[in-house]
Amino acid sequence: MSFLEKPSPGRLLLDDTVPLTAVIEASQNLQSHTVIRRYSDFDVLNSSLMVCGISLPLPPKKLIGNMDREFIAERQRGLQTYLDSITQHPLLCSSLPVKKFLDPNNYSANYTEIALQQVSMFFRSDPKWEVLEPLRDMGWRIRKKYFLIKNKEQTKERYLLSWVDLGPDKFLSDKDLQSAMKLLTSLSIPYLCPLLFSSTSESSALLIRPFSEKGSLKDHICKVKPREIYLKKYCNPKKSQGLELSQIKLYGRQILEGLKLLHDGGVFHGHLHTSNVIVEDGVCRLTDVENGMLGVPSTLRPVFTQFRKINTTESIDVFCFGHLLYEMTYGRPPDSVPVDQHPTVPYTAVVSVLQSILSTEACKSGMPKVSELMQTPLFSDVQLQHSEKLQIKVPSRLKEALKTAKESLEKRLQEEQRVIHQHKRLTRAQSHHGSEEEKKRRKILARKVHNTETLFKLVTLLTITLHVNLFFCLSSGSGASSPPTCPSSPTPPSTTGMPVCLAVCVCMLKCLSVCLSVCLSLCFAQD
């Protein structure tokens, strides 16, 4: 039985990777302060984000004249620019200060305090472990906290204890989740970081694994200390640098080997990125493999949800590998995806693999398989230290449960992608409808319609007039002015007014013909 406490009924599982946006709609005068949120709230937020080393465009404070209408409008525009800059930054937008600022109702809990309570309960149940120090904000995930611990029986070894809240993609039953965690703790595979201990409940999980003093692959690329705050390490690294081709080939092949082992065993990773790869003695080891089973969303979820062909757990892992390969090559993650133009790099074999994963064509048509990537010229000739055949033996019952969980995860992903696709279509239509070019086209069209309607009215008037004239001509020609004395003896037609009437009718027929031609040409021009 797990020592972790159970959640309250009706607990809501939030997806913290869903990006939040903010639009300032109005200002309000309250107790001599112009607020939507008070300026001091923005100032506090900005102070908490200064550790990232990025200059953020918060407008300066003004003490005198801060109630002037023009100043209020200018301040509102400045604060909107500030909000846009932090909500569009890939790391800042998912940080707790920003989430709490934009959505205090869902992010007001003290997650560090919750984690400490759970960890304290664990140490009371297993006293051989001792906390050395909390590793505050070492990772980006809001609901995951880290502690450096040691085993009292092995005082020189250091271990990493992590507490994590379960996520919205947790589709395994509690019993199956415990079986999956037991499987992971039993694995001893070169390309997977060992998981030494795990305990799960209905609300959270506690995990212990070896602590790497050298840090992750991302720490190696950015040349930073592993224990520092992640915003300080990764937001604006000064010394980040891509790896040598030999390292890219070796590390890439080892990571692919780890992914293939997982896929062949019916296990998915879903959280592959440079922070989840540990490098020790020239060997890459995948870590946090359990994240997919715990249901926590991937850091790249906002990216791959934009592409409907990335809709399986295997394709997610391949897409994440392409993202990781780009960062190993250039020393930084891509600014956006798709990537069709690559910076100059002497490794053409790397670029071809990147294009097969991150290009517009690849994102539209689908991801290659892991086995196909292993056969590319970049990775096919890599010599591995562990040549023996490796495999993960998963019990049949657990394999079936994992398959069902994968299908549920993929179904949620595909539904989200469908909603995003519909929203994009609606946004494009609204944008096109409101564009200056479309407004100009509609204005010209309205003018043509107005001219056409005017000409049709003129044609109608000419037609009526023509009929009246013809009637007049025929009436005058039949002696209508002097009615016959006897119906049986009609009067011979008079030729007095005939030439004038006929000339008028011919002229009107010509005008009518011209108007009809113009109307028809305008109609075809509108089509």
TrEMBL record:
It is found in: Cytoplasm. Its main location: cytoplasm. InterPro entries: Kinase-like_dom_sf (IPR011009), Prot_kinase_dom (IPR000719), PX_dom (IPR001683), PX_dom_sf (IPR036871), SortingNexin/PXDomain-PKLike (IPR051837). One of its GO terms (cellular component) is plasma membrane. It holds the Pfam family Pkinase. GO terms for biological process: early endosome to late endosome transport; endosome to lysosome transport; negative regulation of monoatomic ion transport; protein targeting to lysosome. Transmembrane segments: none annotated. Residues 423-442 are annotated as: Disordered. SUPFAM superfamilies: Protein kinase-like (PK-like) (SSF56112), PX domain (SSF64268). GO terms for molecular function: ATP binding; phosphatidylinositol binding; protein kinase activity. Residues 132-426 form the Protein kinase domain. Residues 1-109 form the PX domain. Keywords: Cytoplasm. This is PX domain containing serine/threonine kinase. It comes from Anabas testudineus (Climbing perch). The lineage of its organism: Eukaryota, Metazoa, Chordata, Craniata, Vertebrata. The gene is PXK.
